[in-house]
Amino acid sequence: MEYKLVLLLYLCGLTFEITNAAINRTFPATVKFGIATSTYQIEGAWNEDGKGENIWDHICHENPTYIVNKTNGDIACDSYHKYKEDVAMLKDLGVDFYRFSISWSRVIPGGIAGSPVNQLGIDYYKNLVQELVNNGIEPMVTMYVWDLPEILQDLGGWPNPELIDHFAYYARTLYEELGDSVKHWMTFNEPKQTCLGGYGDGNMAPGYTASGIADYQCSHMLLKAHAKAYHIYDEEFRAEQQGSVGIVIDTAWFEPASGSDEDKEAAERSLQFMFGWYTNPVVNGNYPQVMIDRVDERSATQGYAVSRLPKFTDEEIEYIKGTHDFVALNFYTANYAQWMEESDINDVGYYSDLNVNQFIDEDWEESASSWLRVVPWSLRKVVNWISKTYDNPEIFITESGFSDTGGLEDDRRINYHKEYLSNLLEAILDDGVNVTRYTAWSLMDNFEWTRGYSERFGLYSVDFEDPDRPRTPKASAAYYKQVIATRCLVDVCE
Ligand code: GBH
């Protein structure tokens, strides 16, 4: 690792930029570039053409103060009507693939297994997929980005085991209807946000706060639903359709706060609780041992007759093990991890089960999102850790991106992608990590969940004041286009 420190003087102040030796090397032909969005964040048309209500429609309408400025995704970027324009933007960028997601309640408004498929809903996705294929862009589909049909929430949401069959029916419907053209499927986006966010800390719809119990129940069912969707593909579709299936997991990188064994263990434990929570089951069949041990022990001390972390049976372990054809990682940022004294043993919650002091370096460059600091070297570290921990799988980076509050001259976003990609290039060329896809988040500014439209991640800007939602490329769109065309991060490569 040769890091060259370059001191750059900006008008607004002094910052350090770490440039590394890989910056003027070329990306190997094995790496594909794409860009991502998700249904609720861009589509709008929340009640058109037979679409059912989902939990984000519901929470935005029933509890508007849950969202910054009481905004919602009723119209969002209006991609339901403007998808051809979106594909034209993708074409102009020159991406190899487009990662988008499908709205369950648009396709199956009744939610439950066996309820009718909404033809107009499925047609929207067929048309989008066709438009992509016609333009030489590969569709990469996520089945679920946090938008549960409200009717299934009324039945209890993810902690209800019946959702496994309802999801399996939805997944089978998608393979049947779209599997001729879609060759990369992802079941869930960031299950930790669905479960810890939705049922633990309440930062995501449906906004429940029962951490240490409901988040674990949710994850248990979601993992079984994922495994079932994977096996359905294997048994009924793979031979003919020849595609692949995975699950998208997000994590931050956790850097030990010091060289001490305690801090190293705290960092490893953080990664296991965040990334391993879902990845270890789909790779090895069960939760990470450190998570099992800690939650079992704390539950027992707290007087629970069974662990708050549900158990998979031996049969279920065999069923869940190996249900992924690639590892898909959403990656944005890093934290330091530091050992700490055991917190109050009576605390029931994911974070007290984890019990690590996590913090950021205030010198890391800020974004518009409180949780997102720019830490480029952490991407190289995280993919190396994944490669080592899970026996060198094929890795897709399915999201990475930078937020600001708007503007077309987004030099800091260009810098983010340049620096993260440069570290990725070192991981690929120098460390031999098998990363084959990079996906920028996001194609255009969109509904950023509880942050509404106040944080912007797009390479295209969207005017949300204008009913026509016009899109305008930012400087970062031109930069990404150049990177894809030249496979090079700077003007000239070796
Ligand atoms: C991605 O998650 C999502 O997949 C995507 O939909 C989203 O637009 C993008 O990030 C940008 O945020 O509010 O303090 O509880 C990245 C991981 C997990 C980061 C949830 C923000 C909420 C922090 N995200 N987290 S907080």
Notes on the structure:
The protein is α/β, with parallel strands linked by helices and 494 residues long. It has one domain (4-486): Glycosidases (TIM Barrel), CATH 3.20.20. It has helices spanning 39-42, 55-62, 79-93, 104-107, 119-134, 150-154, 163-178, 191-200, 214-241, 261-284, 289-301, 314-320, 350-354, 377-389, 411-429, 475-486; strands at residues 3-10, 13-20, 32-36, 97-101, 138-144, 184-189, 244-256, 327-339, 356-359, 365-366, 373-374, 395-399, 435-441, 460-462, 471-473. The strands form four sheets. It has an eight-stranded parallel β-barrel with strand order 3-4-5-6-7-8-12-13, surrounded by six helices. The longest helix is centred in the middle third of the chain and has 28 residues, at 214-241. The chain starts with a strand and ends in an 8-residue tail after the last helix. Residues 1-19 have low confidence and may be disordered. Bound molecules: ligand GBH. Residues 38, 41, 189-190, 193, 203, 250, 330, 332, 371, 399, 441, 448, 457 line the site of ligand GBH.
